[in-house]
Amino acid sequence: MAKDDQDIFANGNAPAEDGAGNRAEPDSAGFDDLFGGGEQTRELLETASGAPVEHKDYVADLEKELKSYENGSGKMAKLRIPLMYAALGAMAIMLVLILWNPVPKTSSAQSGNNPAPKRVTREALPDIAENETELAASAEQAVEEDAETDQPAEIEMPVSWQLAHESFVGGDYDQALKIYEKLRERLKPGDTDNLFRDLIDLQVALCHYYMDDADKVSKLFTNALQSRSPAIRAMSNYYLAFIDFKNENFLSAREHAYRSLALFHTLKDHFPAVIERDCYMLIGNALTRETISLSNSNTELPGQSWAEYMTPYHLPAMDKKGIEELLQKGIESMADAAMGPAIRERRESLGGGTFSAIALDCPVDEFIARYANYQGYGVSWHKTAEQFTNRPINLYLPKTIEQKIPEYAAGSAGLIVRSDTNNLTVYNPRTYVSLAFHKRMMVNESMAVWRHFLHRYPQDPRVANAHFGLAAVYSAGGQENVAIGEYKLVASRYSDSELAPYALLYSSRIKTDMKDYAGAREDLSNIVLQYPKARISDQAYLYLAQATMKSGIYGEAADLFAKVYNLNITRRAKARAAYGAAICNYETGQFGSAEAWFERCEKFYNDDPEIDKGELYYTLAKTKFALGKYEDATTAFRLALTGNLDRKQYANVILSWAQTMMSHGDYAEALNILAAPNEEDLTLEQSCEILKAQARIYREIDLPRRSAMLLNQKIEFLANAELRGELLVELARSYVAAGDTDRAEQEYLAALDDLSEGKYKLETTLELADLCIDTGRDEQAVDICSKLLATPLDQRNRKTALSILGTAYKNQKQYDKAAMAFAGVYNPANN
What we know:
Layout: H1 3-10, H2 28-35, H3 38-49, H4 58-70, H5 75-100, H6 132-149, H7 161-169, H8 173-186, H9 191-210, H10 217-225, H11 230-246, H12 250-262, H13 274-293, H14 320-328, H15 331-336, E1 342-347, E2 353-363, H16 364-375, E3 378-381, E4 392-400, H17 404-412, E5 416-419, E6 423-427, H18 435-456, H19 463-476, H20 480-493, H21 500-513, H22 517-530, H23 537-550, H24 554-565, H25 571-587, H26 591-604, H27 613-626, H28 630-641, H29 647-663, H30 667-675, H31 684-700, H32 704-715, H33 721-738, H34 741-754, H35 759-774, H36 778-789, H37 795-811, H38 815-822
Parallel strand pairs: 3-6
Antiparallel strand pairs: 1-2, 2-4, 5-6
Helix pairs in contact: 5-6, 7-8, 8-9, 9-10, 9-11, 9-14, 11-12, 12-13, 12-17, 13-18, 13-19, 16-17, 18-19, 19-20, 20-21, 21-22, 21-23, 22-23, 23-24, 23-25, 24-25, 25-26, 26-27, 27-28, 27-29, 28-29, 29-30, 29-31, 30-31, 31-32, 31-33, 32-33, 33-34, 34-35, 35-36, 35-37, 36-37, 37-38
């Protein structure tokens, strides 16, 4: 049996084979299933034989025919070719009928507010035959051609603008692309067809973009941007603004958005008015993000109501007349402005006035000069913008307010224009000479855009975003108090907005940076109470605990950190919570609990790069020492030194470690620790701190002369007066310990000459007075203490001064004065 014949049976109820490979005879039921029933089979046999077949005999006859079919003879074999042609003809008719009313692909995610695609009608497909007779004839012709060529007939894909549009909005960009390209092939040279070709290029560019085929997008958009139709230019810039914003080219996105706004009047009759607000929202977003990037602020624009979440509106469904009106809109008016821009004031009947401004490929400096001359303004170009004076701009503003004209003109050229006392100054936001000036200019422009949005679109549902954007810009510009006010406004006036809890969170951050921990706690508490289901509520709990800790309320903070730790939060947040709980328990003297929390933190701290490993083990070491676990403390100190410590932190760990060893009586180990750092790895201040610690250790082990020798070696070459004064104090103490009081007094007096006014100098003066008591110079001690008591002193130093004064009076046998001094009473008149 031929292979094709075998395939026919294989697709139906094929006769089974026995184990020897012989085909089993089919029963009559299986055969009926294959052909659709006994009566139909009998009719086929009668047609093939040309003679009637008895009903009772047709099954037996059919079995004979099957056997002869296998041998290539018999009536069934003769039917094979006609049956194949009949099947092919039926298939061709079915394909044409399917294409008659195709069901386009649809998508629930329609772009913008475009309506769902409608079913394509016959009128939309003029290339399809108008009646079934023509369809049948086409099918027969296809079958005949197939018989000649032995190839299946190709049925041409239906082509229409409506079908392409429905495929596009339905998300079938590949199908839409094929139809658009066929439509473009059919166009003839001519003005209208050229404009329609530009429109198709724009749609093809969008198809390639959504299909992630970036190679062809740029050229096609360039063609659309050069179209004679202002509407096509407006749409092209509109889409490019979204594309650039998505790619984080914020200043390019701003420029394209302004170019679209400058020509938006050509789209007003066909597109929703919200497009204008979307463009302005995108401009505000772009400027804010660019401004934030210039500062060290970690501010973000949270939520899903910003530009990156907006979906651009696409060309709505229109008939031929509507498309022609759209493509022709503004061409005639802009052609009249080819010789120069037209700027006019339109007087309204009620006394108010609006303006019209139209320009076609006009250099931006010429347009701004014309506008400034019309208004009687002066114009100055900042040196960063001078190279952009010849950039061409296009405007079609038949009815607008005065403030938009220079703004849209400069924005269309990628520039910024600022008005100040009848003078316009033009800047270039892409480059700068002074970073501080550039940042200030960007902050001011961002503020202006958000204020314009609030003024022009007060009913827009994104007003809360504008206030939030203003707050972010104020914060980036260093105006923290004003930023807090804007955040508070969002949280109170727009409490139902998704931005409200974020506003409280960002306000608390600013207050924390300003060390207003009580205010930060208030904002964070409001998040926890008012927005318990918000995405940031767990984060707010953590920040609340941190603000409470920074406020010095360690007990309450420890409880909050413990609560955060037990929430269903990330490993990173758990690490911070455990670390905070450990610190708070250490500060409250709960060293056992602190140790347990440190152990929990060690499990997670690798998940949070912001946790300082050095600080973590530094505090753990102090905790271990407080618990008497000296070996564990030493291990923790060593681990702390492996952390990412700066110079100050490194010196603090070394000094604390040495102090811990001194407290434990291990002076030799303390000296080894202090000798470990390299001199070049330390600042001058840190080197002096370590030297003072070494001097104290030598005095503790009764080696004051060794201490004095070390100090003299450093003092001799030290030019910094303040540091030299501190080392002279240590030197004086070393001489006191060595019993050389004369040298000690000399060094104290030298130190007082070098030290600046402050706590350290005050304490040094008291030490000198006490030395005078020890050396029998009571009158000098009285003089020093009397002068000190005549100045404002804190309670501790005042008590020390009165004690020394009382001792001096007692040594002088002035017991009444001594009693008053010891009682804490000082009367300057008695001295």
